[in-house]
Amino acid sequence: MTACHGDTRPATGCRETPSGLPVPRFVALKHDPANARGGPGDDYRLLWVYHNKGLPLQVFEETTDWRRVKDPDGQLAWVHKRVVLEGGHSVMRTATTPLSLRDHPAADARVTAVLSSRAIAGLRKCVDNWCQVTVDRASGWALRSELWGAEVLPLGEGCRQP
């Protein structure tokens, strides 16, 4: 049972979350800067500050006002819900090599752009193993497995595929 990235429908039949959204799920940073804390509150230690608007984050726990997230580097922290865009449709190229974006979802399709290492791209849609992304004015298709934030996530305990 899986849910697609960006699916922000209420998780009927799932473990209750304060937002009513499934966990795990992907979001994107809405604000720059954004504080990352050691716990769900302003009184917890500040771990670091994110400076990447649009950065995809994986939410795997939440309170009413806070989201426990994992970033593309695997770091864990709590961020306030006001700094994330639910259903945030962004991905990141985490590999050290550039990624060719193609004009249609096929390995032999014409290259339309190149996504640099550590680049953040907007996620338009995914079809099977391919995702269409945009960066600046460029657009193209890449394998889902090459983009952090485009993974198909398992639904939480007790969830049913809609």
List the helices and strands and how they pair.
Elements: E1 2-3, E2 25-29, E3 34-37, E4 46-50, E5 56-62, E6 66-70, E7 76-80, E8 84-86, E9 90-92, E10 99-102, E11 111-115, E12 120-127, E13 130-135, E14 138-143, E15 153-154
Antiparallel strand pairs: 1-15, 2-5, 2-8, 3-4, 5-6, 6-7, 9-12, 10-11, 12-13, 13-14
Provide a brief overview of the structure.
This protein has strands spanning 2-3, 25-29, 34-37, 46-50, 56-62, 66-70, 76-80, 84-86, 90-92, 99-102, 111-115, 120-127, 130-135, 138-143, 153-154. By secondary structure, the protein is mainly beta.
- Sheet with the most strands, sense and barrel status: 5 strands, antiparallel
Relevant CATH superfamily of the largest domain: SH3 Domains
Order of strands across the main sheet? 7-6-5-2-8
Q: How confident overall, as mean pLDDT? A: 86
Number of domains: 2
Beta-strand portion reads 35-45%
Low-confidence stretches: 1-13, 158-162
The CATH topology annotation of the largest domain reads as: SH3 type barrels
- Which class best fits the helix and strand makeup? mainly beta
Return the string of H and E elements: EEEEEEEEEEEEEEE
Assigned CATH architecture of the largest domain: Roll
Determine the N-to-C terminus distance. Answer: 10 Å
CATH class of the largest domain: Mainly Beta
C-alpha Rg (nearest Å): 16 Å
Determine the fraction of residues in helical runs and give it as a percent range.
Answer: under 10%
* DSSP strand count: 15
